[in-house]
Amino acid sequence: MSLAQFTKQELVDMSLVDMAYAIIESNNKQTVAFTEIMDIIVAATGKSQSEVRAKIAQFYTDMNIDGRFLCMGDNRWGLRSWYPVEQAEEDTITQIKPKKAKKKKLKDEDDDYEDDDLDYDDLDEFEDDDLLDDEEEIFDEIDEDEDLLEDDEELIDEDEELIDEIDVVDDELVDDEEEEEDDLTLDEEDDDL
To answer: 10 Å Cβ neighbour count for 76?
Structure first.
């Protein structure tokens, strides 16, 4: 089923997930990149790129949640019905192979040291120094945070002063307007007499 068989009105009423299903299904069991799906939807519906981009996060989430779709890596999507369960798991799970060369190298380095060569008392001193360095870094960060808080408080104080000045100017303007209205009212009364 492709989008070509739907009318323009049907496409407007259809959800993006259903359109994606029709696009992927018509692709002869070949995965489709998410960007290609978006381009086809834009072309078929006549919606602008900005309209579709506004819905892209929800659309991507819906595709992930919808049980009909299967992401095959590199943001390429297929249909779950194309793959047997065992094959789908093998295709989507990346096998991580340990690097044997590093293990061998580490093993060779471990053989170079004998237990008798190590002085464990020296190790305690290094750990204490490292802990002191970590504590100093933490205290430095706390001091920086306190400085930022003080800067923020100064800005807040300045803002409050500006607001107070604005209130004073507003009050003066209101008083001036009231005086003008009173003067106009008095002039009108004088004219009436």
So the answer is: 16
Instruction: Report which of residues 35 and 53 the model is more confident about.
Output: 35
List Cβ neighbours of 3 (8 Å cut-off, separation of 6 or more).
Answer: 11, 19, 22, 23, 26, 40, 41, 44
Task: Determine the pLDDT at residue 110.
Answer: 54
The pLDDT assigned to 40 comes to: 86
pLDDT (average), residues 14-42: 88
Residue 164 has pLDDT above 70, yes or no: yes
The CATH homologous superfamily to which domain 3-92 belongs is RNA polymerase, subunit delta, N-terminal domain (1.10.10.1250)
